[in-house]
Design goal:
Number of domains: 2
CATH class of the largest domain: Alpha Beta
Distance between the termini: 29 Å
Strand order of the largest sheet: 3-4-2-1-5-6-7-8-17
Largest sheet: 9 strands, mixed
CATH topology of the largest domain: Rossmann fold
């Protein structure tokens, strides 16, 4: 079986959850004898990765900006599709299935399906046009149409959570959609070198009673969707009455929003002395940071799955999350984590109450027994989301397209009803 996977990121080029997902999927399928060809477009040119059953090629067509004009995305997609087609045909290796990820690779997948007649599997990691209003963004019309067309005409749609699958059905009730939760690799042991590096970024601080200040962690992209501004307000509220906590923000993002967050945290007299923005950490450093943390917070305004939650739970860090999207499925309230509500106003904007978020954090900090119970349950819950299971269910989904008599339903792939 030969699968062509289209995406805009793949390790070592990882921007968000899709890159993590594809890395885990590739590792999980490696032992199944599946031949994988990855076409990664729009993230710049990088050396190809050639392994026994895996090829990864990065595409970035050379087109001058004047020619691109307002058709930048469409032209890029078509040129990448043509380059991918020429490579596959020259190697006499037309794939059995085209697997695209989100709207930005669907146009490319559709062009290749027209050329080869191969089916499309689309993994939907989120449907932007249903949620971007929550953080004040209107989705461009061509993206809306691509998302709708993906839901309508993909031969099979995989939702990364039941929440996403329900969103797909909202867009197109007859969509052939199933649910396969993302998988994650277990954490390695804490690396002493990484631990020392992290200690340099956020050194231990002693409070008056001789104990160390506890670290509250946010790890993720610095984009409005992730809700960090509400965490900053909540943490400021906490620090008006106590001085035994520090907030560490690990991540990066578009310069405008990241700079606005830095400006807010450094200009506020309370946050300036209690908050550390340490930038994006590598995996070993993030593991070391979690080892020093008291509570992790995922205050997203929308989260289709939630790798940040899985990683925190897997590291044994008690977790506070917003009650939204896939986080509701992954994190069981009061067992493997704590939920806080988000409010959606009449215009569709979302917010998280700073007092409620602050109270949830403080409750875990001040109740070690509860924090320990949640830590243990969270670690066990995270262990259920393995890359091996994700890969096995994805392989069964592929087979169901190639063999109409084969049904993935008998193999615990959840179908959205």
């Amino acid at each position: 079986m030969h699968i062509l996977i289209l995406a805009h990121e793949f390790p070592p080029v990882v921007v968000g959850g899709i890159g993590t997902y594809l890395g885990q999927l590739a590792n999980g399928l490696a032992s199944e004898g599946v031949r994988l060809s990855f076409a990664i477009g729009g993230s710049g040119l990088h050396p190809s990765i050639i392994e026994a059953n895996r090829q990864v090629h990065f595409y970035h067509p050379k087109v001058d900006l004047l020619t691109l004009g307002s058709e930048r995305f469409g032209l890029f997609s078509d040129l990448i599709a043509d380059e991918v087609a020429h490579r596959c045909e020259a190697e006499q290796s037309i794939p059995d299935i085209i697997h695209c990820n989100n709207w930005f690779t669907f146009r490319c997948a559709h062009r290749l399906r027209q050329r080869w007649g191969r089916p499309i599997v689309s993994t939907v990691h989120s449907l932007e046009h249903l949620f971007t209003r929550r953080w004040g963004v209107d989705t461009l019309a061509f993206i809306v149409e691509l998302e709708r067309e993906l839901c309508r005409s993909s031969n099979l749609v995989i939702g990364v959570s039941q929440s996403v699958a329900e969103d797909v059905r909202r867009v197109h009730a007859e969509s052939n959609v199933i649910v396969i939760h993302n998988g994650a690799a277990p954490w390695p042991r804490v690396d002493p070198k990484a631990y020392k590096e992290v200690a340099g970024l956020c050194p231990d601080e002693v409070v008056d009673d001789g104990s160390l200040r506890k670290l509250i962690i946010f790890a993720g992209r610095l984009v409005p969707q992730k809700g960090l501004r509400f965490l900053l307000h909540a943490f400021r509220h906490i620090c008006t009455s106590r001085d035994d906590l520090r907030l560490v923000v690990a991540g990066d993002g578009p310069e405008d929003h990241a700079e606005a967050l830095r400006e807010f945290s450094t200009s506020d007299p309370i946050l300036a002395s209690t908050t550390r923005l340490v930038g994006k950490l590598d995996r070993a450093q993030l593991r070391a940071l979690y080892a020093r943390s008291a509570v992790a917070v995922v205050p997203s305004l929308y989260e289709p799955f939630g790798y940040a939650a899985i990683e925190a739970m897997a590291a044994g860090v008690p977790l506070v999350v917003s009650r939204v999207g896939g986080l509701v499925e992954i994190v069981q309230h009061g067992q493997s984590g704590v939920h806080v509500e988000i409010q959606i106003d009449s215009d569709g904007y979302a917010r998280i109450d700073a007092d409620e978020l602050a109270a949830a954090i403080v409750d875990l900090v001040d109740d070690p027994a509860k924090a320990q119970r949640i830590s243990e349950a969270g670690r066990a819950r995270a262990a259920e989301f393995t890359s091996a299971r994700m890969a096995d269910l994805t392989l069964r989904a592929y087979r169901s397209l190639l063999d109409p008599s084969y049904s993935p339903l008998s193999s615990n792939v959840a179908r959205c009803s």
